[in-house]
Structure formats: C-alpha cells, structure tokens
Design brief:
Helix content is 37%, strand content 12%. The protein is an alpha/beta fold and 613 residues long.
C-alpha cells in the first residue's frame, strides 16, 4: 500500500494549530556582582558608607561630606555613580542615584547562602530602580555613570514599565556583548515576574528595535569614547523565547507575526538607508529571532533575509514556522537561513503531499543542528501513482536519516498506518518528543514504538485522535510502561477512552512518576472515572495539569458509545457540570493537591512546548 499523507484538522484546534503555553517554572536568572566587570574598579568614592536601619532592613546609605577613602570593591559598584554626583547635577536625580547605590550595596553585602525563596515581593534594589526610571531624561543622562552590573535590572524594569526612552538608550549603550530576552526577562532575584510568559508590549518592543537602529548607526570610531572608557560592545541581540500567539488578542501587545514584520522592516531599512555618516563603519550586530511567515508576508521576509546577508544587521532565525506557503517559496526561504542557527522547522497547512515533501526535505536536512521538525496537516495527493508514491516515501525516509541532532518529530494528521517502523528506524538518535496525532496508528505501530530505542527517552508523547479503545489498548499500555521513567507530557485527546479503558490503564499510568501534564479532553469519561483518576494520581507528585473532558453525566440524550463529534459539539448541562467542578475541587483539597489544575480548557496554552520541558 502506498504511504500517503492525509489531512485532518481536529475540530478542537484553532486554525493556527495547537496552543503554546507559557512555560511553568523555569530557571531563575539574576545578575550578581561577579557576572561582569564593575565599572571604574578601584576609583575612590567621596563620602562614607555606614549601616543605617530602615524599616527593619539593614541598608547601606551613601553620605556626602568628608570621610575615609573607599574603593568600588569595598563599598559596592553601585555607589560610584551616586557618590560622583556633582553640585550642578539635578538634586532629585542624585537622590535617586544614591538610593539605588545604597540598595545595590546592601544587596552585595547580604550573604548569598541560603538562597532566597521565590516571592512576589520586590527587593529594595528593584523598587529603587523603578523610582530612578520615573524621570526618563535624568535616567538617560545618568546611564554612562552607572556600573554595568545595573543594566540587566534596568532593562527589565524599563521593559516592564514601558519606559521607552530609557529602553532605547539602554540598547543603544548596552555594555555587554549579549543582550538576551531569555536571560533578562525571566524571573530573577529582584522580581518574580517572568515577562517571557506574557505577550510583550508593542511599545517596549518598538523601543528595543529603535535602540538597535541607533546602535547600528554608531561607528566603531565613536564606540570607545564613552564616559569611564566604556565601549558599546553589543554584538548579539537575542529576541527569541517570546510567548507565541495565544487565543486572546490584546492590541497593546505584539504577536510573533508582528515581531517578525518589525525586525524585517529594520533589516530592509538598514540596507536601504546605510550608515548615518558615510565612510564610518557601523558596528555589526547579530539579531536572533523566531520567524513566522505565510503567503502575505513571504516576499517581505525574503527581502529582509537577503538584505541582512550584506548588512551590519545579520538576521539569524532560531525557529521557523511557515503556514500555507507554496513549496517553491518554502524552499527559497530555507536556502536563505543560516545553517548554524536553525533549531526548528514547523510547516503547517502547506499542501505538500509526498511529492512536495520529497522536494523540501533535502533542504531541511542541511541544517545539521536541527532539533525539531514539525509537519502539520500535510495534505496527500490521491492522484499520485503508486510507484511514484513509494519512491517519494523511500526518498523521504533516506533524507530523514541525515538528521543527527533531531529530538522532536511531529507528523500530525499523517497517514502512517503500518509504516511507523520505517519512519522511526531511519533516525540516527532517539527522539524525546513524538507527536502522532490523528495518524491512524495500528496495534503493530504501537508495539514497534514500545520496543524501539525512542520509548525509553520520550519526554513528550501525543497520540491524540488515535483510537485506543480496542486492540490498540494493550500495546498502548506497553508503550506507557516503556516510557514511564522519562515521560513528562502525555496528550490523549479524542482517543475513545471510556471508564473501562481508563481504569485498566491506571496502574501503568500512575507509574509515570515524573508526569506533569495529562490531556484527556474529548474522551467519553464519566464522573466516576474522573474521581478514580484523581484518587490514583495522588501518587504522581510532579503532576500539575490535567485537561479532562466534560463528564458524560453532564450531557443529555447522549448516544452510546458517543462519537467524538458529539462530545465536542453537544450542549452541556451547566448546573450538573458546576456540581462536578465543585466535587473535584473538594477532592483535590482533601488529598492535599489543591495546586494541581484540573480544567476543561483546551485553549488555555497549558500544553508545554518540547524546549520548555
């Protein structure tokens, strides 16, 4: 039988595909004095430093006047700017600088062990920084005098509070080689708010881009003339890791599509406009971004990638997502991307078929560091002769064998019945994430996967839309058994699992001790089945999210067995479901699991992206 790819988009998914959630938890990154060289080391500081109690907290305050000489290493680098203020400076700005200097010095002298626990409270350093940025013009004038250790927190506060003037100047005068959103906008020691889990402000993003433009027009000859001998050393602006598009649309925030357009416009304008002063070489900057492209934006993005090849602004794509893009356009974009930067290719609704896939795949395979390949809803061509179809499939498999770093493969809505062994056997290394939603898998496919080297490495598994209620149930349980030690994320939406199948699977499911997410939406489960699942899942200490279906008890006149279309479209008795929710909540409280989210919301961006696991 010819292996063809069929298209079926699940009814419960939005046109853009599955939602991407904000990552839970995540590394807490902060800056410390040892992270970078202090500005003006060894310079004398006017004034004495002493401990003064303030609200029960020991705070170092800078006092003007005569006093013993102190060095930056003794008093803390933040005191340099405050103590060096002259009599002609703005008194209000000086006061703010000194407040920030005292707070920073106190933080430096505070013992770092044991580490502080996460808190919603802001530190004194953060509050002082926020106060300093209230007057943006004064803050911009003071930036050359501030130690560079303060710049990371200044950036986060300015980005959060939309202090666009300061934000632009921070990017323009950034004193480090790398400016990374993933490092600066995460939860840190001074502020527990993780801005990467929110869609970015349009104003803040535009300010960053304007600062980058100003930076590109700063010649090398001017970069070393800054106060305190500081050079503008920015070489890499990493804007990756921003929250992808969700269901909610906020006109005040910037989507990934808007971000792609804004960066592309900057690339084109830079190439067309050149430098501000002819004859002076601009400082080159590499901009790392996640790009989104469709038919409407293809020509624009292609021009931007071409422009960046000979521009001081070098555009590097980390993750590429192309939607509804013809084959030739997809190939043209892939040829323009840097092979050393790309880690993910995500093709959706592209009407490729096996023939188109065999044309594109060799261009994808040249990215030797590619870690994720996602092929969503790739349409098959039923008119393709069987011999050509088999040849295209074999060629596709051969090209798949070229990937050496592939860790995630998504073949959603592809007809792989009886062919999964051929696909997975060609891969050089074990997968950690495998998405086979609506692939019409057979029992032998599941048995092969359970015995394969991939099973014991899987962190994420998506079998949505495959019927697991009949002869597939036993091999599915064997697959769970094989993956139990590593599995973190399990998606089983619309798998025809009723109470009988769920109860039979619970013993092996609860052995997945590290499981964090379980998706069961669209399965015909009753309230009794959900309660049994809740009781047994108490043993899974890492479980944080369960997306469950509306219990069949809450429907009226439901046929049995209910098809998935009925479960997704039939009306719910709201009173019955309110009682169900209340009972589940009480059971969670009684078992000490109130922190676990049980929800029917499939559009809430709760499912984790592979790279966030």
């Amino acid at each position: 039988m010819v292996a063809s790819l069929c298209a079926r988009r699940p009814r419960n998914l939005p046109p853009g595909g599955r939602r991407r959630p904000p990552a839970t938890g995540g590394a807490r990154r902060g800056w410390r004095r040892g992270d970078a060289e202090a500005a003006g080391p060894g310079q004398p500081i006017r004034g004495a430093m002493g401990w003064q109690p303030m609200g029960g907290v020991n705070v170092i305050a800078a006092r003007g006047g005569a006093g013993r000489g102190a060095t930056c290493g003794e008093a803390g680098p933040a005191a340099v700017a405050a103590a060096s203020a002259g009599p002609g400076d703005d008194p209000e700005a000086v006061l703010r600088m000194r407040c920030l200097a005292g707070a920073q010095s106190a933080a430096e002298l505070t013992p770092r062990w044991p580490p502080a626990r996460p808190s919603t409270m802001h530190t004194l350093v953060f509050l002082s920084t926020r106060q300093v940025l209230q007057c943006q013009s004064a803050a911009c004038q003071a930036l050359p005098l501030l130690p560079r250790e303060l710049f990371p927190l200044l950036f986060k506060v300015a980005f959060m509070d939309k202090k666009t003037v300061v934000l632009r100047e921070l990017v323009h005068t950034w004193p480090f080689p790398l400016l990374s959103f993933q490092q600066l906008l995460q939860e840190c020691a001074h502020c527990s708010r993780a801005l990467l889990q929110e869609r970015p402000s349009t104003e803040s993003m535009q300010a960053v881009i304007l600062g980058l433009t100003a930076r590109l027009h700063t010649p090398e000859t001017e970069a070393g003339t800054q106060p305190l001998g500081r050079k503008h050393t920015l070489r890499v602006l990493d804007m990756t890791g921003l929250l992808d598009d969700g269901v909610e649309q906020d006109p005040g925030t910037m989507s990934m599509w808007d971000c792609t357009a804004a960066v592309a416009r900057t690339c084109i304008a830079q190439q067309q406009g050149g430098t501000a002063e002819p004859g002076l070489a601009p400082v080159p900057v590499e901009v790392r971004v996640d790009l989104r492209v469709n038919r409407a934006s293809y020509a624009f993005l292609r021009e931007a990638l071409r422009s960046s090849a000979d521009s001081p602004l070098r555009l590097c794509c980390r993750d590429l997502r192309a939607e509804d893009l013809p084959m030739r356009n997809t190939v043209a974009l892939l040829q323009l991307l840097d092979a050393g930067c790309l880690r993910r290719v995500d093709l959706r609704f592209n009407n490729l078929g096996l023939r188109g896939l065999s044309v594109i795949i060799p261009h994808v395979a040249r990215f030797q560091h590619l870690a994720s390949l996602r092929l969503h809803y790739v349409h098959g061509d039923s008119r393709q002769p069987s011999v050509d179809g088999e040849d295209n499939f074999r060629y596709f498999l051969a090209q798949m064998g070229r990937f050496t770093c592939l860790r995630e493969l998504s073949m959603g809505s592809s007809l792989l019945s009886g062919r999964l062994d051929q696909l997975l056997s060609t891969l050089q290394s074990p997968l950690e994430s495998l998405e086979l939603a609506f692939c019409a898998l057979l029992p032998e496919d599941l048995r092969f996967l359970a015995r394969s080297p991939h099973a014991v490495h899987l962190k994420k598994l998506d079998l949505s839309g495959n019927d697991l209620s009949g002869s597939q149930l036993e091999p599915f349980q064997g697959l769970l058994q094989a993956a139990a030690a590593t599995l973190l994320h399990l998606e089983l939406t619309e798998c025809q699992l009723a109470d009988t199948q769920l109860l039979a699977t619970l013993p092996v499911l609860t052995r997945c001790a590290s499981l964090r997410y379980l998706g069961l939406y669209g399965n015909p489960l009753s309230m009794a089945g959900l309660k049994e699942l809740l009781r047994d899942s108490v043993a899974q200490a890492e479980l944080r999210t369960v997306v469950h279906p509306f219990p069949v008890d809450c429907y009226e006149g439901l046929p049995w067995p209910p098809p998935a279309s009925v479960l997704l479209e039939a009306s719910i008795n709201e009173e019955k479901f309110a009682r169900v929710e209340a009972e589940l909540h009480q059971l969670l409280l009684a078992s000490g699991r109130a922190h676990v989210l049980w929800t029917t919301d499939i559009y809430g961006r709760l499912a984790a992206d592979y790279f966030s696991l």
